[in-house]
């Protein structure tokens, strides 16, 4: 089966997203059949899956198979903008609506009119923006910041997330009514390790792609290298596979890629190794650890009872802080991995880590500052003219 990818994959930074997708594995073919069934409609679609599995490519495939295929496809990342500017980005603003708004600017909904708007990392939207997004979906109109006049829109919405929105709803971090509005059609992308039939076609695709880009003869894989590629757990999914093949094409010699040419992330190996070698906390140096989830859960319940017996004040806050600290240390102070393990959005995790003093305020605000700076730059018209704004039109 053919590989589905961006029209010009080389124009996209390699670390941003998965840039190729195939449906050779039987589980992937089931997903493709579902996409083909729902794409012709105008139903709102929620795409779920781990980072690097190809959620934006699924959104583009839905667009290309729909009646809106000749209209614009606009993709933005909801986590790329600060909380104060996300509304003007989505819904537009009038001149003078806020400092730096030197001219009226349409939002992404208006830019995607008669086409498809893809909201990536929708779980990162602040609650205030969620309220307005819900109204847009209900009324099919936007009200730009600083204006009282609604603007009618004709847009199909495809949203994506790598966090558990149901858990976010229960935690009060995501509106339940918005969740139901988005979850009309759900397309779940399995991680690459659960669809091994897709690995070989993707390897062939990336070998061919990078050989052409580097103007090299296509190298061949030794049997040992191919076996190693199939045995890897691919925590970074398609994105990681592409990086591994790119590196191998660069460093291989003699037109052959061997195991030594494959560079894998240490993230998938570091944590299990630490669990095997580190003594259990409070065990006096003993290395015995729970043998399964049930045993570990029983130990957790026993620890909660101990805290109750000790009269621990603010019990829930105490437990929550312990969870955040443990997962953050387990993740070697990596915020992205912490958010994945907790199944929460990065913005929520970043804010809580800062409250606990585990992040410097400057570090916690870096992403928000970057999003605000990029948004102001776009407001002046420079980003849109240069094609560097977060929008990518098909």
TrEMBL record:
Residues 21-250 form the Sigma-54 factor interaction domain. Gene3D superfamilies: 1.10.8.60, P-loop containing nucleotide triphosphate hydrolases (3.40.50.300). The keyword Transcription regulation applies. Keywords: ATP-binding, DNA-binding, Nucleotide-binding, Transcription, Transcription regulation. Residues 371-394 are annotated as: Disordered. One of its GO terms (molecular function) is DNA binding. PROSITE patterns: SIGMA54_INTERACT_1 (PS00675), SIGMA54_INTERACT_3 (PS00688), SIGMA54_INTERACT_4 (PS50045). It comes from the Bacteria. The keyword Protease does not apply. One of its GO terms (biological process) is regulation of DNA-templated transcription. PANTHER family: TRANSCRIPTIONAL REGULATORY PROTEIN, TRANSCRIPTIONAL REGULATORY PROTEIN FLGR. This is AAA family ATPase. It comes from Paraburkholderia pallida.
């Amino acid at each position: 089966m053919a590989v589905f990818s961006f029209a010009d994959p080389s124009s996209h930074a390699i670390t941003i997203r998965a840039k190729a997708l195939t449906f050779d594995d039987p589980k992937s073919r089931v997903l493709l059949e579902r996409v083909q069934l729902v794409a012709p409609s105008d139903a709102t679609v929620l795409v779920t899956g781990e980072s690097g599995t190809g959620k934006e490519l699924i959104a583009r495939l839905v667009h290309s198979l729909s009646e809106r295929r000749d209209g614009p496809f606009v993709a933005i990342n909801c986590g790329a903008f600060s909380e104060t500017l996300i509304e003007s980005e989505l819904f537009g603003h009038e001149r003078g609506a806020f400092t730096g708004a030197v001219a009226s600017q349409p939002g992404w909904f208006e830019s995607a009119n008669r086409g498809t708007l893809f909201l990536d990392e929708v779980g990162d939207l602040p609650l205030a923006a969620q309220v307005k997004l819900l109204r847009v979906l209900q009324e099919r109109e936007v009200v730009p910041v600083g204006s009282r006049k609604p603007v009618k829109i004709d847009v199909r919405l495809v949203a994506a997330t790598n966090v558990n929105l149901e858990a976010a709803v229960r935690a009060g971090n995501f509106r339940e009514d918005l969740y139901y509005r988005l979850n009309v059609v759900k397309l779940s992308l399995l991680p690459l390790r659960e669809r091994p039939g897709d690995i070989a076609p993707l390897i062939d695709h990336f070998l061919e792609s990078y050989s052409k880009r580097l103007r090299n003869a296509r190298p061949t894989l030794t049997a040992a290298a191919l076996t190693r590629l199939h045995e890897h757990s691919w925590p970074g999914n398609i994105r990681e596979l592409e990086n591994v093949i790119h590196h191998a094409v660069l460093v291989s010699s003699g037109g052959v890629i061997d195991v030594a040419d494959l560079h894998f992330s240490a993230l998938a190996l570091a944590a299990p190794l630490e669990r095997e070698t580190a003594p259990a906390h409070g065990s006096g140096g003993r290395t015995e650890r729970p043998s399964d989830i049930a045993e570990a859960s029983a130990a957790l319940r026993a620890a909660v009872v101990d805290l109750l017996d000790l009269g621990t004040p603010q019990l829930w806050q105490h437990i929550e802080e312990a969870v955040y600290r443990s997962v953050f240390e387990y993740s070697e102070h990596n915020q992205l991995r912490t958010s994945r393990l907790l199944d929460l959005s990065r913005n929520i995790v970043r804010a809580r880590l800062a409250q606990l003093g585990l992040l410097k305020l400057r570090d916690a605000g870096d992403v928000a500052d970057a999003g605000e700076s990029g948004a102001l730059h776009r407001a002046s018209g420079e980003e849109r003219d240069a094609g560097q704004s977060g929008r990518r039109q098909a």
